[in-house]
Amino acid sequence: MNKVIEERTKRTEWYRDARFGMFIHWGLYAIPARGEWVRSVEQIPHEEYCPLTEEFTAENYNPREWARLAKKAGMKYAVLTAKHHDGFCLFDTKLTDYNSMNAACHKDLVKEFLEAFRAEGIKVGLYFSIIDWRHPDFPHYGDMHHPMRNHPECSNENRNFDRYLDFMFGQIKELLTNYGKLDLMWFDFSYGDMKCDKWKAQELISMVRSIQPWLIIDNRLEGSAEDSGSILTANPTEYSGDFASPEQMIPPAGIRNELGDPVPWEACLTLNNNWGYASSDHHYKSAEMVIHMLVECVSKGGNLLLNVGPDAKGRIPKESVKILEEVGEWMDENSKSIYGCGYAGIDKPEWGRYTRNGSKIYAHVMEAQAGAIPLTGIHGKIKRLRRISDNSEVRLTNYWNLKEYSQNQFFFLNADTCDSYPLPDPRDTVVEVTLEENEN
Ligand code: GLC
C-alpha cells in the first residue's frame, strides 16, 4: 500500500470509529449575528469591524456545559474555530494583538475549551483559517473573497506574502506547542491558485508532523470548492489530508479514491442555515433529521461533524441544545449501530439504511411499513434479531403466500401483533442482525 495512505489509515483509526463530532463556530461575527462571512459579504473594513472586540464579553462562556452537551449527544470529538477568516484569534497569540486576551473577555478561550472537552473524554480539534482578512500582507484588492477586494486603494503592491506565511506558520506552531496534545487540525480553505505551494503546504505538514505526528488534518490545504485534491488519487501528497471534507452535503455513495478504496471522510453540516451565530435564522433541522443524517454518513463509511454557533455571550442557541439533547436520547439506546460502524456492503433497503460492525448488521428502520419488513440483501443464515434499544426479540418470518419473495427473510417490529406499524421509535428503530458464524 502507498505509504501516505497506510499512515493515514493508522492515524485515523479513532476518528473512523468516533463517527460523530461537534463543530463550533464562534467569534466576533456573533455580534453582527449574520454569519461568519459578514465582513466579506458586506465588505466591511477592518477598522469598522475591529471595535467589536470591546463588546465581546463571552460572559456566559462555560465550555464545561458545551462539553457535557456534546457528550450527551454522543459526540466523540469537537472542533472549535481558533481563528476564522476575519483573523480574530480565540487564543493567546504573541503574533497579533487581535485576539481574545485583548477583547472584553480577556481570556484564552481556546485553552478553556480544550481543558473542558478533554475533561469529558472528548477528542479535541481546532479549526484554523489559512485565509486572514485582517493581516496586512494577505492579498486585498482583486482577491476572490477579501472584504476590500473592490478597493483599488487597497492594492497589493507592498504586501509581502512570505511575511504572511511566516505569521501563519508561527500561529499554527503556537497552537501545536502551547496547548498539549491536539487530535485534529481543520485548515480552511483553498481557492483558485491559493492552494498547495502557495501555502507552502509540504513545509507546513512537515512542521505539523514533527510537532504532533499523530494529529489528523482535513484536505483543504489542497482541496477546494473546485476539487478535493489528491486525496482521491492512488498517490496522494503528504498534505492531501487524512479525511475529505464535503460541506453541507452527504455524498451519494460515500467517498472512494480512484482505486475504489474507501477514503475517510466527514460531512460538515449546520443545524440551522449558518455556521456562525445568526440571530434570525430559525431554520433548524429536527432531531429526527439529524439522526437520519448521522446514520446516512455512517452507512456510507463517513463521519458527521455537526455545527453549533454560540452567541457573543457564549451560549449555544436553545434550539440547538434541545435538538442535541434529543439526538442524545436516541444515541443512548442506539449508539452501538454508530460507533465503530461503517458500510454494510448491502444496497440501501427501501425502509431505511444498513450500518455494520463486523458480523453485526444494523437495520435502521426509518419508514413505517405495513406488516413484515424484508431484510433485503441479507442472504446468510440469521442467528437472531434484536431491537438494540431494549434487547428485545424481533421475530423472523417467511413470506408464506408469494414464493417469489422467499429469497428474503422478513421480520415484524411489533412482536405481539405481527405487524410493524407504528414504528416503536418513529425516528429510527434499530434492529441488530446477527448472522450464524461462517455466514459473514
Ligand atoms: C467554509 C467557510 C466557512 C465555514 C466552513 C465550514 O469554507 O468559509 O465559513 O467555516 O467552510 O466547513
Describe this structure in words.
The protein is α/β, with parallel strands linked by helices. Helices cover 24% and strands 16% of the residues. The two termini are 25 Å apart. The chain is elongated. The chain has helices spanning 3-11, 13-18, 38-41, 46-49, 63-73, 109-119, 161-178, 201-211, 287-299, 318-334; strands at residues 20-24, 77-83, 123-129, 184-188, 216-217, 266-270, 303-308, 352-357, 360-365, 373-374, 382-387, 392-393, 395-397, 410-412, 429-435. The chain binds alpha-D-glucopyranose (GLC). Alpha-D-glucopyranose binds at residues 25, 36-37, 188-189, 247, 268, 275.
- End-to-end CA span: 25 Å
Q: How many H/I helical runs?
A: 10
The CATH superfamily of the largest domain is identified as: Glycosidases
Strand order of the largest sheet: 5-4-3-2-1-7-6
- The general outline is elongated
Number of extended strands? 15
Classify the beta-strand content into a percent band. 15-25%
Structural class of the secondary elements?
Answer: alpha/beta
InterPro entries: FUC_metazoa-typ, GH, Glyco_hydro_29, Glyco_hydro_29_N
EC number: 3.2.1.51
Organism: Blautia segnis
Function: Alpha-L-fucosidase is responsible for hydrolyzing the alpha-1,6-linked fucose joined to the reducing-end N-acetylglucosamine of the carbohydrate moieties of glycoproteins.
